[in-house]
Design a protein that fits this description.
Layout (H helix, E strand, L loop, with lengths): L1 H14 L1 E12 L4 E11 L3 E11 L16 E8 L6 H8 L3 E3 L5 E4 L3 E4 L7 E3 L38 E8 L3 E7 L8 E6 L7 E4 L1
Antiparallel strand pairs: 1-2, 2-3, 3-4, 5-6, 6-7, 7-8, 9-10, 10-11, 11-12
């Protein structure tokens, strides 16, 4: 029996693989570049198919190491599944709206939160709706292993599916100021929240609208 289990695990391990398919540039500027890369991942019993990674490179990222789905000298930003996609160029066109280039040093990356870099992808600081006070949230139903019944922090469940956050009116100034409005069905009474930072994203202030 033990030999059979070992053989099964060995076959699974041998089947694990990742290969790059293609890539397309999202932004090619004087101080940093953004590209989308498609990979094919084969993880038996877990995931088999295309995935994508959005990566950024600049002089500030030159020492970033490579790994299975990241090129040396680049840092990974967004990612996701891409089964059924036809090309990296197709995905790059779709994902482009999530990357707001403000100037040669400033990039805003929008995902399930808002991340901003003022040093050409050298570092990012972000704000996520899961940081909103509980009294502002109409909570979604969660599994029993989540708080308060369990120990897991499952605040992200409040912002999934049709409750996904939408970020609007993003404004950025080079001196470290960023502001935007977030809307979500998870926020009580259909209200919106204005979010802003004046210290390069180190601290954030929120106000109901």
């Amino acid at each position: 029996m033990a030999g059979g289990i070992f053989a099964f695990v060995f076959l699974l391990a041998c089947g694990l693989s990742t290969r790059k398919i293609d890539e397309a540039m999202i932004y090619d500027g004087p101080q940093f570049r953004i590209k989308l890369v498609r990979y094919f991942e084969n993880f038996p019993l877990h995931y088999t198919g295309e995935v994508f990674r959005v990566q950024c490179a600049s002089p500030q990222t030159r020492n970033s190491p490579s790994h299975r789905t990241q090129d040396a000298g680049w840092v990974t930003l967004g990612n996701g599944g891409a089964i059924g996609s036809k090309s990296a160029a197709e995905l790059a066109e779709r994902e482009r709206r999530n990357y707001l280039v403000v100037d040669d040093q400033t990039l805003v990356w929008i995902g399930n939160g808002v991340n901003v870099s003022f040093d050409a992808c050298g570092s990012f600081l972000g704000w996520y709706p899961t940081s909103l006070p509980e009294e502002l949230i109409d909570p979604a139903e969660k599994p029993d292993y989540c708080q308060p019944k369990g120990n897991a922090d499952c605040r992200h469940y409040d912002f999934m599916g049709e409750r996904e956050p939408h970020f609007e009116k993003i404004q950025v100034k080079s001196r470290g100021h960023i502001s935007f409005i977030v809307r979500s069905k998870a926020i009580r009474k259909g209200q919106s929240v204005r979010v802003q930072s004046s210290d390069f994203g180190k601290t954030w202030q929120t106000a109901l609208l």
